[in-house]
Specification:
There is one protein chain. By secondary structure, this protein is α/β, with parallel strands linked by helices. Helix 3 runs parallel beside helix 4 and helix 4 packs across helix 5. The protein contains 15 helices and 12 strands. The chain is about 40% helix and about 15% strand. Strand 5, helix 4 and strand 6 form a beta-alpha-beta unit. It has a 7-stranded parallel beta sheet with strand order 4-3-2-1-5-6-7, with helices on both faces. Strands 11-10-8-9-12 form a 5-stranded mixed beta sheet, covered by helices on one side. The protein starts with a strand and ends with a helix. The chain has a domain of about 130 residues: 3-Layer(aba) Sandwich (Rossmann fold).
Length: about 350
Amino acid sequence: MIVLGSTGSIGINTLIVAKRLGINVEVLVCGRNIELLNKQILEHSPKIVVVSQKEDVLKVNHNNVFYGEDSIVRVIEDSSSKFVVNALVGFLGLRPTITALSLGKKVALANKESLVACGNFIDTTNIQPIDSEHFGLWYLLQDRKISSMTITASGGAFRDWDIDKLQNATLADTQKHPNWSMGQKITIDSATMVNKMFELLEARWLFGEGKYDAIIETKSIIHAMINFKDGSTTAHIANASMQLPIAYALEEKMDENILEHVDLLKVGSLEFREITKERYPIWQIKDDILQNPTQGVVINAANEASIEKFIAKEIGFMDIAKNIIKAYERFRDMPKNIDDVFAIDKEVRAFVRGL
């Protein structure tokens, strides 16, 4: 298989599961964590390695190393592997997703931006979601009429902060996730609730038109719920680990014990909270974007450009959502094809950078 984003948390867990199941790794793709990459090369012996920067090529302990976005697409095209795990971060992951699917490869998708930005032009037949929320919905689906689907959020780093202090939140503050350690961007997205907005859009493209919503569950034990027409609700409960959805993506039938079961007596109690527009301003466009899901390309581009400005200390934390909403109100033309998606992405980024 091909692992895109091998040194991130999802990539690391993918390689753990692959080794456990005896699956060969043909290609490793990573950013700039060369030290970990070299350890992965020793353990998994890939045929090809791709890194993001040219200056890192000579640091990699491998004889077949490429660099850059174009190389990612090329190795997918040249690879004999029929399975791709896409755990890249951001819009960077879109072309690899499109390329892999066009070649008939199965994609285990953790790159939510692929569907957020381009869901209208992607056939999801060969996509297996490995975000815990979408995996939970997939796991719960059965042949009964559905009323609505709900995914859960941790609430991010600022779920307990005084709202008045949020404008002064720093980059370091955003990284203090209450439940686990993730990459920089996704942890910021968790704090703004943009990540959950993206996951709702993903669910819309994966499971079709319907009613989708999200709530905060502070312990991250419940990942998804389905409300059926008959009035009953089923919930997917599992310890927070990507290894379970990854295992199902790699093997259609999974009879092995991948995780320890949740001990509800140790959990003791669960707390649920509403996602409010006051704490998470991005939520004010949630209903509209779900009615106009092709506009996902706008909020994704605006979000990535705004995060760049936040990291550069050009804007405050609360300005991220403000910029996204400004861009969303400004760009209302729907993309008519994949080329439009890339064109709108560039235009929105330029707009936000000029704010």
